[in-house]
Amino acid sequence: MYPSITTIFGAPGTRKTTISITWPTPIAFYNLEHGGHRAWNFNALKESGDITVRSYPIPHRSMVTRYEKLSGYMDAWKKLTSDMESDLAKCATVVWDTGTVVWALDRDAMLEEIQATNPTRKQLQQIEFGEPNRRITELFNLARAFQTNLVITHHETDEYINVFDPLGRPIMDEQGHPVSIASGKKVPEGFKHTIGLSDWVLRTKFVDTMSNGTTVSVPTATIEKSAYGLHLRGTAIDWATYDKLSDHVS
Do residues 94 and 80 touch, judged by C-beta distance below 8 A? Predict the structure, then answer.
């Protein structure tokens, strides 16, 4: 399978990280949630030198106040982007675990930069999201330029869609913001253009199946977007059977 950008999203515990490290080695693993060691075969790959772990000094946001003066996020973002430039040139695969955290770090680094000249600023304004969007998009494009696999795990979240009146006009709330409702669909949490920029999108979950008269839960990834054609959409990959996505689609 040619180098590609793959998004893997799903509920906690559905083996997103385990699946992400089945891509070609050597792998640069961005351990942004410090949970890589729980993935099956992770420690063995680390000991063999097939995985290099990258860690980042991301500060913890306050859990008691919504607004605070940020510090350390710009440095962590600078280190991550510098590592990307180096790792994409020498590794077969770069894994972000998770892309949800990468997106949060990108936004917080931008807010810290703004607070340097405007200390009273507490959050990004809608118009200011263009720069964080550009930064993430540039990292996606960099992976394509180096022809290196970029595998991104994501938490899942509810998709929200705008509500329109019978004439097709968006309905606004009292503050002038568009009204939205949950569509009932799950999407990757984080950078909103992730699906559009990915070649592959896999959603993970456990599926109950019968084995020797006993119900067992099997980790399964369903293809929601395929770089090899629409005919693969909806295909469920039993990860207990397939070691790599390339084994299934080649």
Answer: no
For the chain, which residues make up each domain, given as ranges? 5-204
Task: Judge residue 72's burial from the number of C-beta atoms within 10 Å of its C-beta, 0-12 exposed, 13-18 middle, 19 or more buried.
Answer: middle
DSSP class per residue in 11-68? STTS-HHHHHTTSSSSEEEEETTS-GGGSTTHHHHHHHTSEEEE---PPPPPSS-S--
Name the H helices within the chain.
16-20, 42-48, 73-90, 99-115, 130-146, 194-197, 245-249
The model's pLDDT over 42-92, given as tens digits with 9 standing for 90+, comes to 999 999 999 999 999 888 776 666 667 888 999 999 999 999 999 999 999
Q: Is residue 137 classed exposed, middle or buried when 0-12, 13-18 and 19+ CB atoms within 10 A define those classes? A: middle
Is 11 in contact with 205 (CB distance < 8 Å)?
Answer: yes
> pTM value?
0.85
Name residues whose C-beta falls within 8 Å of residue 6's C-beta, 6 or more positions apart in sequence. Answer: 23, 149, 150, 151, 152, 198, 199, 200, 201, 202, 245
What are the tokens at 137?
Answer: 């998009």
Q: What is the pLDDT of residues 138-178, one digit of tens each?
A: 999 999 999 999 999 999 988 888 889 888 888 888 877 78
User: At what angle are helices 73-90 and 130-146 packed, to 10 degrees?
Assistant: 20
State the average pLDDT over residues 4-11: 94
Range 5-204 classified under CATH 3.40.50: yes
Q: What tens digit of pLDDT does each residue of 194-235 get?
A: 999 999 999 998 877 777 778 877 778 889 998 878 888 888
| Rounded-to-integer distance, Cα 220 and Cα 207, Å | 7
The residue whose two tokens read 């973002």 is 77
